[in-house]
Amino acid sequence: MLNEKSLSVSQDCNECPIRxxxxxxxxxxxxxxxxxxxxxxxxxxxxxxxxxxxxxxxxVGSVVSGIATLTQTMEDGRTQMVGLLLPSDFVGRPGRPSAxxxxxxxxxxxxxxxxxxxxxxxxxxxPHIAQRLLEMTLDELDAAREWMLVxxxxxAREKIASLLSIIARRDASINMRDxxxxxxxxxxxxxxxxxxxxxxxxxxxxxxxSALRKEGVxxxxxxxxxxxxxxxxxxxxxxxxxxxxVFA
Amino acid sequence: MLNEKSLSVSQDCNECPIRxxxxxxxxxxxxxxxxxxxxxxxxxxxxxxxxxxxxxxxxVGSVVSGIATLTQTMEDGRTQMVGLLLPSDFVGRPGRPSAxxxxxxxxxxxxxxxxxxxxxxxxxxxPHIAQRLLEMTLDELDAAREWMLVxxxxxAREKIASLLSIIARRDASINMRDxxxxxxxxxxxxxxxxxxxxxxxxxxxxxxxSALRKEGVxxxxxxxxxxxxxxxxxxxxxxxxxxxxVFA
DNA sequence: ACAAGACTTTGACGCAGATCAAGATTTGGA
DNA sequence: TCCAAATCTTGATCTGCGTCAAAGTCTTGT
Lengths: 248, 248
Fold this sequence. Notes:
The structure is a homodimer.
Chain A: H1 17-24, H2 29-37, E1 39-44, E2 49-51, E3 59-65, E4 68-73, E5 79-85, E6 90-91, E7 102-105, E8 109-115, H3 116-125, H4 127-153, H5 156-174, E9 183-186, H6 191-198, H7 202-214, E10 219-221, E11 225-228, H8 231-237
Antiparallel strand pairs in A: 1-8, 2-7, 3-6, 3-8, 4-5, 4-7, 9-11, 10-11
Helix pairs in contact in A: 3-4, 5-7, 5-8, 6-7
Chain A binds a DNA duplex through residues 155-156, 190-192, 200-204, 206-207, 209-210, 222-223.
């Protein structure tokens, strides 16, 4: 999920991240062939639901391009985003029959999928895949717990600054720029999606973004294109210490 | 963490849960012997810090008896609990050098520990341990994401009801009682610890507990002994549907 | 190029929960 | 057993964020 480790996809193999990250470097060629056999691609349009919570899952896979969100919804309609899926992030719960959250494409999305049962069978035979998945799941757990601190204890302003700094770092990492630089990126989320992630309303998000802009912490061109003139300042606003805190 | 699966320790092997849950059922006897070699017990007193965030971890292990919390703290002192460790819960991050959170004993605590490096080496050789740990980590991730919904979108009253219902279910599960019954248990947390878990202040926790008592949703003897006369009612108050929602 | 819909901003106002404060109850150590 | 410290309750007041409302600005299809 939202941390740098999960974003470092090497350039020569980003067509199918799972293959590269979980398997390529260490496995035997016949395992690679088996993976090829059960691999297929799926495309989704922006707004389309990839998986409904509770549905039987017939695949696991990873994001090739585009962005998706994991959300939970209460009966009365209140929703909370519990994860953001970026290229190279893994989707699926090996060993579990059904999905626990809705997965929704927020942009056009390409997924690299593997049929679930054969994938699980291969996992049993190739221990380093299970180990790689354990590492990735521990990363996600850390990110989820980081986010619990944001949701439970930060103010609206700090929440916005936290989200912006995470997206900025991710973006810098993908484009191999230095975090010390003046960073520029396009927000991949609507104000409403930001609100769902942060446990706020979209009005509060809009107000706090405007406030940060007026005070020069961020610069905006249009509604989505953001520039961070001083990352240290943004991290201060987020309540993290300036050297990057836990996300460093 | 907080879900029923992680609590079902069979009676004949709860002295050292990791041995039972990760290994016993499936592994070879020489692996069991190796586990014995690197196993040791540690006791902590109530209030003692088991691990400091950022410290080098020299062991992994699991809780034998007592209760511990995982917490994160900001520089200005705001703290958020990110996990509750109950008997049989696993502690540690195989493959990671250092701890990501403070672990604090809230009652007297006994841990069953394994030296980290040999444990990791054994994990490489015995795939079903890695798979079992993956399952446990996925459980924790689900619980963490459940809690994100609680923190981000529930009211104070719903938060209290959610916490009480989770503790009640856990307790019923350990003592093998039916959740349909009239449930009774001792709160293992102070009002302040509950507040840190729920992203509230201790005053708000106290007020909401009093309100639930006055309205008959819960009964109290003293400050800590709780009776739930009607679990369905409590779950309604928590905003879950009465059949148990996602924790079922 | 324009209209319609989606997304965003801003303002006014209210309320849930935080903060500040005072006491009550429980716990534990001498 | 009794005192001190820890824990909990309750009240009064304040405030950050939610709610409701209206208007502004992008996007998309025809």
